[in-house]
Amino acid sequence: MRWIERTWYRPLSLPALLLLPLAGLFALIAMLRRGLYRCGVLKVQHLPVPVVVVGNLTAGGAGKTPLTLHLAQQLAARGWHPGIVSRGYGGKSVTPLAVDAQTDPALCGDEPLLLARASGVPVFVCPDRFAAGQALLMALPDTDVILCDDGLQHYRLARDIELCVVDGARGFGNRLPLPAGPLREPVSRLDSADAVVVNGDGDMLRHERAFRMKLEAGRFYRLADRQVCEQAELSGKTLAAVCGIGNPARFFATLRELGLNFSEHPFPDHHAFAAGDLPDADLILVTEKDAVKLAALPGLGALGDKIRVLPVRARLEPDLAGWLEERIRHGCKAA
């Protein structure tokens, strides 16, 4: 998988050229599918509250989950009652499932569990996001806005606002469709999104509503007891950074910005960790997304005492949550 991604994010190469016929077929199917929803052949389902989709155009991580978390917390702080729905990628549940802090990540997936633990708002998962939204509203009828973590291409669920996240460092790679490149939809799809959020450094895209997101590191905490530990505790220790997110390089760069020296151990996005994946080191540094799976490993024991978790939080410029609230208050019309 890492080899494929390296092919995507470099100039046009021989492997990408060989995959062009499949990429053309993928693009055609994606275009036809979207067209069938737009003309009503495939039915779009509407929920009775505003739906905000947080998605992206590329395969892999771009920062959707931290943005969803940020918006959920910001809206709740402003008096709204948001809920979150997600496909639950990597989880086994095929029917709507309410996710709480004790849910097995094997059932719900890593990102929904992280959102349930960190956001303080209800989270439901199902491959059918509309069904997840229905279940959430039935269980919590006071919910007045739903955030869909991922799902830009899940057209069965009607959406009132689309937010498209772009990785500022990697951009759109070779700009080819899957599998020759990283694109799920063409870059022109940005034109129909309500706002674009550029995650990290990189050129701001020419869009009517463009926002910059930066992920700011918090304080490390111990996986075993969630007690905050000072960075000085890491001094003089052999450190290993283990990461199974869409773009591990972003996590490694954050650790380097903190002045840490460590060995890098990248894994595919949503990797199902086993104890044998963890390297021999004094301390092991992981993301919160990976931590929810590692904490569920049976028999982790003393190895778990070595794990330190680095939380990150999104900061948006200008105020995306304020803009979003105004859109919701005005019936989601352009504002």
Automatic annotation (TrEMBL):
Catalytic reactions on record: a lipid A disaccharide + ATP = a lipid IVA + ADP + H(+)
Biological or metabolic pathway of the protein: Glycolipid biosynthesis; lipid IV(A) biosynthesis; lipid IV(A) from (3R)-3-hydroxytetradecanoyl-[acyl-carrier-protein] and UDP-N-acetyl-alpha-D-glucosamine: step 6/6
GO cellular component: plasma membrane
Keywords: ATP-binding, Kinase, Lipid A biosynthesis, Lipid biosynthesis, Lipid metabolism, Membrane, Nucleotide-binding, Transferase, Transmembrane, Transmembrane helix
One Pfam family per UniProt: LpxK
Record family assignment: Belongs to the LpxK family.
Name of the protein described by the UniProt record: Tetraacyldisaccharide 4'-kinase
Organism: Formivibrio citricus
Gene name of this polypeptide: lpxK
